[in-house]
Amino acid sequence: MDNPFKKILHNEELPEVLKEKVLNDVAMIKLSIDVADLFVVKYPNVVADLLNGGGTQEKTDNKETE
Taking CA atoms, which of 1, 24, 34, 42 is between 20 and 30 Å from 51? Predict the structure, then answer.
C-alpha cells in the first residue's frame, strides 16, 4: 500500500479526506480495544463472580454483619 503522507508537501495542509480516514482508523482501533477488553477481561470476571456466589461485595457485607 502506498503511503499517502509522503505525497504531502511540508508547507501544505492535510487533505480533509485523509484526515477523516486517519481519524476513522484510530476510532476503529479504539473500538476494537474496548470490545476486546470487554469480552476478554471483564466478561470472564463477571461470569466467574456469578459462579462463585456473587463476588466480593457479598463477602464484605457478611463480615460487617458478624
Answer: 34
> Are 49 and 55 within 8 A, CB to CB?
yes
Residue 63 is predicted with a pLDDT of: 59
DSSP state of 66: -
| Contact of 8 with 14, CB cutoff 8 Å | yes
**How large is the greatest C-alpha to C-alpha distance in the chain, in angstroms?**
73
Instruction: Give the type of residue at 45.
Output: N
Average pLDDT along the chain: 81
Q: Is the pTM of this model over 0.85?
A: no
Tell me the one-letter amino acid at 58: E
Cell of 48: 466467574
